Amino acid sequence: MKRDKPKYKKIVDAAVVVIAENGYHQAQVSKIAKEAGVADGTIYLYFKNKEDILVSVFREKMAIFVSNLQTILEKDLNTSEMLFKMIDNHFFVLHEDRHLAIVTQLELRQSGKKLRLRINEVLKEYLDLLDVILKEGIDTGELDQTMDVRLARQMVFGTIDETITSWVMNDQKYDLLKLAPEVHRLIMNGLRAR
Amino acid sequence: MKRDKPKYKKIVDAAVVVIAENGYHQAQVSKIAKEAGVADGTIYLYFKNKEDILVSVFREKMAIFVSNLQTILEKDLNTSEMLFKMIDNHFFVLHEDRHLAIVTQLELRQSGKKLRLRINEVLKEYLDLLDVILKEGIDTGELDQTMDVRLARQMVFGTIDETITSWVMNDQKYDLLKLAPEVHRLIMNGLRAR
Amino acid sequence: MKRDKPKYKKIVDAAVVVIAENGYHQAQVSKIAKEAGVADGTIYLYFKNKEDILVSVFREKMAIFVSNLQTILEKDLNTSEMLFKMIDNHFFVLHEDRHLAIVTQLELRQSGKKLRLRINEVLKEYLDLLDVILKEGIDTGELDQTMDVRLARQMVFGTIDETITSWVMNDQKYDLLKLAPEVHRLIMNGLRAR
Amino acid sequence: MKRDKPKYKKIVDAAVVVIAENGYHQAQVSKIAKEAGVADGTIYLYFKNKEDILVSVFREKMAIFVSNLQTILEKDLNTSEMLFKMIDNHFFVLHEDRHLAIVTQLELRQSGKKLRLRINEVLKEYLDLLDVILKEGIDTGELDQTMDVRLARQMVFGTIDETITSWVMNDQKYDLLKLAPEVHRLIMNGLRAR
DNA sequence: TATGAATGAGCGTTCATTCAT
DNA sequence: CATGAATGAACGCTCATTCAT
User: Fold this and answer.
1) What is the mean pLDDT of residues B40-57?
2) How far is the CA of A97 from the C1' of F17 (A)?
3) Which partner for B105 in A132, B30, B168, B194 could form a disulfide, CB atoms 3.0-4.6 Å apart?
């Protein structure tokens, strides 16, 4: 499997760095190859084309979020705790990899429609897990029984996303992790049964 | 003042149409010129460069949101009512101009970092007005006294934005306006004093 | 009409020179542009793509052969005389433009299948006129009544073509024009009624 | 001698198949290697470079024509009979190996000048034998004493070549072998003493 | 001998911007 | 003011060849 080979990972990581430091439109294949320490042509032994590199970046990195979230789901937590863990984890991963934060929040959004659709497919897996949490919360009576799950999901994700984007745009100069409890409170207030 | 001349407006409107119908990356200057019914070179009598056209698009159209929001602020409404009017107005404008919705929610986000920063400057005026509403709500005791205004603003805007983007991505096939009350309820639940 | 503009002709002529001097596979668009004294991009104001340049070269130059042959057909000549004029004209044109001779006999034949099909369409016009001459000769009894016109045409064109190609491959070091009577005699011997 | 090893022949045959089925410009070394069932690098143990493969294809296959023609020359035949056998043999070999016909008549002609010169060297052996037949015919008085041997050879080969190419281009959909007598008659009419 | 992963030079085409008319 | 022909820089991808194993 190509994805397990060391050069595959090296190229994906190089792409994150190059995109973060140069911007999406200045991330030429040759720059990524140089950063990865391979020849231009080597890229094409592991990726079909440039778009494939970018989708892979998103897929590989998003896998971390999804896998963490699955671990959270398996624990014996109530909905509020799960949502907190989710927010905290989301913030934590991007807080730890600042290059990745720039890429996911700013640069990858500049991609064309086609690429964005493929990115959304990957994102869907994550949002589906969020739906599971929300539905469970509604079932157990922790969350408002009358609300629309899709809208609730958009509110949760929209708030998280907007918070992180804002942090990235302010050059990550304050502590994102400290915002987790407050974001969690805002969200829970919005969703809680009453 | 150039901005008042008829060709200026014609070019801005042409840009919205061309971007919506062709996508950001297929919106060449020559296409915009053709749609506006002027020669390529004429564009440069009214705009410094291509980026200037796009910023102008955003500035001219955002002015509608800002001006509407100012009118709302001047009315004698409580915070919850104001937020509802704001959400409803935001939804209404984009509901009425589907080209514009595509441009603001999808296409313009594909622009480079530099352009995005300039767009954010324009957006700031709108967000500042939102801050005014929120602060007033906190002062009057309608909203939670302990919450961070910046986070609250991100939650409000993030939820609205995510809802609209989701609607656009689903080809605007359901009625966005009908979602306003539910979105308002979710947001108010999150912000309300308790 | 683009084909009448001076730059169109300049580019076509430049292409002939560049291909003749550098070979088909070394005739880059930028080289042709330089030879024509225009910018690379200018090429694309007059031609759809590189293939279009090459087809145009063939079409423009082949037009000379066709037009000359039409003039010959209009004269009051017998079949033998017409065939001689045709051979002589064919030799003469390529004798006068040695670059063109290299291009048509050697370089253009290296083009891919798609381009070759388009070239053959152009060539067809010329071969159709040859068919007219041959059919007329058969009707008037000058040529062998029993022979297959298609084969006869292939023999006439194959002989002419092979003779010129051989001359070009020998660096055009002998006088091609002097071969016309002998080639004519060979061909007429093959076709003549007996 | 490398040429006798089984892998050498396997690679040459693979090249014919790959070129015929994919076209000259799509006949990558790696494709030939795959078809031959060897690794890419193995090719370079038997051939200096890609051009060497292609020249070898032509040399190996042309050897069949030459050897057959030599057999014909050794028989006790008059010139007309020899020319018929030659035409018939030429048609027969390509009629039997349709891949080879495509390669020699269409694909290999797309090669660059350098390769074409080397191919012509190989072809020379065949044309020299044709010269022998023609000179003998002139000596014995069967053929026209006054004609130029080189031109005569070009007429014979040009006619044969043009006929086969035409047949290949028409997807080999009529019976090439049946054309031999008529082609022979046309040629003999051209060459015969009178 | 045989392998096949790695190399890296090379090129057609687009499009924002200019400027002579 | 308005035009639109001309400019030229910039880049993703292929594939013949090499060489460590």
Assistant:
1) 94
2) 40
3) B168
Rounded to whole angstroms, the Cα distance separating C27 from A132 reads: 62
User: What confidence score (pLDDT) does residue C1 get?
Assistant: 67
Beta partners for C143? Answer: C192
Q: What is the pLDDT of residues D76-95, one digit of tens each?
A: 999 999 999 999 999 999 99
Q: Is B192 helix (H, G, I), strand (E, B) or coil?
A: strand
Instruction: Return d(Cα B118, Cα B105) in angstroms, integer.
Output: 16
DSSP string, C100-163: HHHIIIIIGGGS-HHHHHHHHHHHHHHHHHHHHHHHHHHHHTSB-TTS-HHHHHHHHHHHHHHH
Cα–Cα distance measured from residue B46 to residue B40, given in angstroms and rounded to the nearest whole number? 11
Nearest to A189 by CA among D51, B191, B93, D144: B191
Å between CA of D23 and C1' of F13: 20
pLDDT for A183: 95
Q: What is the pLDDT of residue A116?
A: 81
- Find the length of chain A: 194
Range with the poorest average pLDDT among A104-108, B140-144, D7-11, D66-70: A104-108
Please calculate the CA angle D185-D187-D188 and round it to the nearest 5 degrees. 65
pLDDT in tens, D143-162: 999 999 999 999 999 999 99
Closest CA to C18 of C3, C37, C45, C1: C37
- Choose among C168, C193, C133: nearest CA to D154: C168
Query: pLDDT digits over C45-63, tens only?
Result: 999 999 999 999 999 999 9
Gap between the Cα atoms of C184 and A105, Å rounded: 78
Residue identified by tokens 């009453």 is: A194
Between CA C22 and CA C43 the distance in angstroms is 19
Identity of residue B93: V
Give CA–CA dist A144/A71, Å, rounded: 25
What is the DSSP track for B130-168? HHHHHHHHHHHTSB-TTS-HHHHHHHHHHHHHHHHHHHH
Residues on chain D touching C151 (C-beta within 8 angstroms): 163, 179, 182-183, 186
Q: Is the CB of C45 under 7 A from strand F?
A: yes
Model pLDDT, residue A118: 86
Q: Is residue D139's pLDDT more than 70? A: yes
d(CA C143, CA B130): 96
